[in-house]
Amino acid sequence: MESQGIPLVQWHWVDSVFRELRGLAGLELSLAVLVTAEIIAVPYYLALRTATGSPILKMICTRILEDEANHLRYQASMVARVASKRP
Questions:
Q1: Which positions ≥6 away from 34 have C-beta within 8 Å?
Q2: Which residue among 16, 37, 43, 80 has the highest number of C-beta atoms inside a 10 angstrom radius?
């Protein structure tokens, strides 16, 4: 961000709400909140990667999308584990 002249955000209310919800929730709800955020991130970073002319930003978006795919695979396995313990 800095190399592109984009200032870093130090605080945002959405992040605070997200962290608060996760802290109040049990494991299953916490996973659901996390999965929701990551599912929303996928089309956002796909659109950003498509819209930008910056090779650096395209590379960053690709990396984030790869990370999100790995996170979602892991979280799907965790959700399945938690759900399997419910009656």
A1: 22, 75
A2: 37
